[in-house]
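User: Structure tokens for this complex, please. No commentary.
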Amino acid sequence: MGASVLPADEPVLAIGGAVKRFGARTALSGLDLRLDAGEVFALLGPNGAGKTTTINLILGFLRADSGTIRVCGIDAGADPVGARRHVAYIPEQVALYPGLSGVENLRYFATLAGLELSKDEARALLTEAGLAPEAYGRKAGAYSKGMRQKVGIAVALARRAQLLLLDEPTSGLDPSAAADFSATIRAAAGRGTAVLMATHDLYRVREMAGRVGVLSGGRIVEEIDPRTLDHVALERLYIDRLAERAA
Amino acid sequence: MRRIGAELALCLHDARLRWIGAVLVLLLGVAGLGAWRDAVRYGHQVDAVTAAERARWLGQDAKNPHSADHFGLWVFKPSSPLAVLDPGSEPYTGRMVRVEAHVFNDAVYRAVQDAGPLARAGLGSVADIVGLVVPLAAILLGFSAFAADRERGTLRLALGNGIAPGPLFAGRFSALLLALVLVVGLPLLGIGALAALSRDAAGWQAWPRLLAWIAVQLAYAAVFLLVAMLVSLVARTARHALAAALAIWVGLCIAAPRLAPAAVEISVPAVSHREVRARIDAKLRPHRTAEANDSRTREVLARYGVSEADALPVDLRGLMMVENDEHHFDLYDREFGALFDGLAARERAFAWAGLLSPRVALQALSQTLAGTDFAQHAHFVWTAEAYRRAISERMNAEIRDRPQRGGATLVAGPELWREIPPFAHAPLPLSRGLADAVVPALVLALWLAGLAGLCVPLVRRLKP
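Assistant:
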């Protein structure tokens, strides 16, 4: 699933001049973004900056008022189902079926997505996502937020999609789990998956992302290579850009 | 198929299905087994009374054949084996007819007179439960199909991970329908099979009727499953979906079925049985006067060119009875024929009234397939009338062809009584029922197609 080969010059994600308004409020005002295979891009911005709106547009849950959004060459506005075939997604709040175990949840979502996962394969994916083996068979209703997040990661990993969308992926994870998660995402990028993450977590951004876009007023106001800055400098730069924008 | 299996497994994890299944099996079991016990008891009673009536007919004293014609006997309507599932019009139309000289009798002994408490609650038969409770079960299973996922957040995870809405909807619908087949179809099959195997099903084509009947009940359940899922596609929360689906259930299963008969009565006026009786009496009155009788006597004597009855080659009273009955038969054919035609027209209109509610379409379709519809009753009434006429014709012919001179009266005995065969009634074949079922089946199919058509754009635009 999602393993089709793209033409060399075709980005995995291409957003051009995307505008989205909710009544009088403009959430995105001409967002441009290009993401190639194997890249990890972090959208950094305060609450209401348009991070989740961007993800919803890519998933086709919202339709842009103008501009284009293409996933692996497919117009996400015109063919959201087709575009989503190439996408894996981990929402900020992963919800699972409380009556099913972690393994059952993972196998259920995989089956609906057209994948056949054996119990062993499901367990391996949950291990890769960082879920403790003793939790595999427990009902998801008893899971903590972090445990649900890990099952969500496993659901996304199972699909081996070309684009991985992460909405505040490390919120609710303990430091050790967050570190594991960073490693998992880097591994996915190493396999050629393009990753777009919306986050506040500057520390993880620096650890995971190859590019950072500071989103403010519905557009990317600065793009940064986080490896050229330490955490403090990255935080100062981020706050300065937001302050400039507010002024 | 794997998607359906996954959805069914999810469904089976839900305690709702177990509760709904248990309640349905209990209700259907109580109603079905109760109806089966009553049907078996009624069958035994009919067999016993039919044998007693036959013995009474054959054992009657030697008498004038016309007296024997008035002696009469009772004939009984054989009940369809599937009346255990859907008694249709049977409880209201009478089960036995008194066959006697001159009179086209109405069927009497309506089973509804023996109705129990469940019947008074509108749940007296398996068909009542399917019509009223199964939609509720379908709604309780289907209302959360998408709304609960939307509320919980699992729909966002599913759609965001490449799960296409179309197959998701199809898989869920198929799994829930399969669940309904388990908790509705199997109990119906069990009760129907018990009825078909244990009761005299000769001529009823019980098995094809049963399978078609169950298929129709499941199609009806599917209509309400689609209603629930349609609401679930658009509702923000499961609670909203349930409230909206229940409101639709009240409208379609309770309000509209009460409006439909009124609408049919207004749009297809029909004369009442009492009016027809009064009209027949009014037309017979001038025929029964002494003057009219004298006039007919003179006409017969003139026809044979004789001046007195003893000079006739036939018995005058016998001949006049033959001719009187022919006059009556024509009148009955015209008047009762018009009455039955009018009632049949109402039945057809009632089938179209199914456009107001699938429950109305189901009622029309279910009775027809079960062999308990008005057409079967009318067929029985006319078969009983044909039997009555055959007895009268034989008795009258016996008198006519054995002229008695000097005022003597013919006396006949058991040889003549034995010439009358026992009453036999073959039900209308299934092919006739299928022809009558076309309109309600089409209406039910329109409900299914319409709801599925409404679901398609909503599924395409499905959002978390």
